[in-house]
Structure formats: structure tokens, C-alpha cells
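Posting here for the record, re: adenosine-2'-5'-diphosphate.
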Amino acid sequence: MKFYTLKNDTKLPAIGLGTWKSDPGKVGEAVIEAIKAGYRHIDCAAVYGNEAEIGEALKTAFAQGLVKREDLWVTSKLWNNAHESDKVIPALQKTLTDLQLDYLDLYLIHWPVAFKADVDFPSKADEFLSLEEVPIIETWKKMEEAHENGLVRSIGVSNFSIEKLKDLLVDANLQPEVNQVELHPLLQQDDLLEFCDNNSIILTGYSPLGSGDRSQRLKKEDEPNMLENEVVTKIAKNHDCTPAQVLIAWHISRGTAVIPKSTNPKRIKENIESYEVELTDKELAELKTLDEHYRYVDGKFFEMEGSPYHNIYDE
Ligand code: A2P
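Prediction output follows.
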């Protein structure tokens, strides 16, 4: 296993289990299988709607001695409807209750986007709150408070551009440890990686396999399938491994963490075994050529007419 040491000296396991889109009824078993297969990093979020089932699985895993709490890294994320100052700690407490934990290893602001408190997902523009109404720094101060209170060991952000990170770095008392963003050979984000490296922020990549199981509503027609990409499949043959393992190993070679989602025991095991795949410089150079700044998660769902959010990735 490989770990990344954060500024606060905690150690983030490089490969974690993603749980976005893991259905209720399946996610608990997936977590148990992952822990048995050697995962020590589970990535969660309130909005995934499955934290209570994950909490039951964690309780079972601890009770059965599959892993000790202190040896497992659990991340969760603050949903967009809880950015207001008085909402942050209660939202975190709900997540802790659901996960049946006393503390999180990492808590992230899920998006630099805010909704009104009773809105899960806006269906009209006036259900958003702008960042002028609820500045990120106000939310961040509460994240810092959660850290001070021992509810979370580390704090960070998700889906933040360099510009938004810069603003936060100026104002924050406690610097973000992690930025979780979409990352894969079609969206390499070298500038963001360099900025994060220079500021000792670990990048974690989501949708590393292209998130083919997103609902149709979130998909574009003719999306590229990275698992069938010619370069990826050729490199997989070189190593007698699978295309998914090449895509996961690519992260490890760049020093980014990665959270492939699976609820299938065989693929869960396959994905963590990517640690064994060492890509050569030539293969990395071939993968480099695939970069086309292609986003599977383009954020357009925040940009309905009248919404205060446009160009959320600042590009
Ligand atoms: P499943 O859960 O049935 O294994 P991402 O991590 O980019 O969000 O991608 C998740 C999608 O990739 C899911 O459809 C998941 O299906 C599938 N997947 C996960 N691991 C593998 C693998 N090793 N090979 C092929 N598909 C995989």
C-alpha cells in the first residue's frame, strides 16, 4: 500500500473505495469486501444517500476485528445545502451519526456551490445561494472549528479550481490538506497538480474509470470509454493486467490519490491490486498524449438559467 503524508502528518492511503453511485443494499457489502481486500480508505459523502448503510458495515468490520478504527481512513463531504455557518457542524454531526463514527479522517466542502438549506438539488434558480451570500471562507471557518473540536482530523475541499484555492489559502487559518477533483488520462489537470504540489495539497481523483454508471441524465451522448481506449488497453496487455488497473496505476505514478468505485467483489479486489502495476516512462508518455481536458462531470447541472453559478471550474 502507498500513503501520502499530509501537512498534519496523517497518512492518506493512495487508493480508496469510491461510494458515489453505490446503491443502497450493495454498498455495505462493498465496504466489507474492500476492507477484506486490504482497502484502508473509504470515500463517502452525505449526498450519496448511503452513509447509514456504510456506518452499519463499518460497525460490523470493527466488531469482527477486520480493521481497527485508527487504521482506517474515512472521508466525507459537506453537501451544498449546509454551507451556511449554522448548518456546517449539524451536517457533519449527521454524517458522523450515520457512519457511526466519533470522528472523520477528512471532511471536504463538496462543491464551491451553495443551495438554500432545505434544497437537496435545485429545480429552480432561486434555490441557489450565491458565494456572495455565503462566502466559502465563512463555511471554511466552521470546517476549522470542526477540526479544533476533534470531529475531523483533516479538512479540505472538492471541485476547487486554482483560483478558488488561491482565495482560500489567503484567508484560511488552517490550509486545506486535500482537493478532490475529476482526474484521469483524458483530464490530467497538470496546472492544478503543480499548484497543489507547490502548496502541499494532495489531489484525489474521482471518476478515474469514467463513471460509466452515472444516471443517463448526467451523461452526454458519445462519451469516450477510457476502459476501451487503445492506448490504455495496449498498456494493459504489456502488464497482463486490466485497463482499469492501468487507469488506477496512472494516479499512483503521479502522486495523486484515487477512489475507484465498485460494488463488485472481484473488481474491488482488482482495483486495489493496481498498486502492483508499475507503468514505465514510455507508457506514461503514451498516456500523456491522451489529455484532451475532457470532463465527464462538467458541472453544467449548477448552471441553469438565472443560477448565480457559471463556469464553476474557472476555465
Ligand atoms: P461496478 O460497481 O459494477 O464494478 P468510477 O470509479 O470512475 O466512478 O467508475 C465506476 C464504474 O466503473 C462503475 O460502473 C463500476 O462498476 C465500474 N468499474 C469499477 N471497477 C472496474 C473494473 N476494475 N473494471 C471495469 N469496470 C469497473
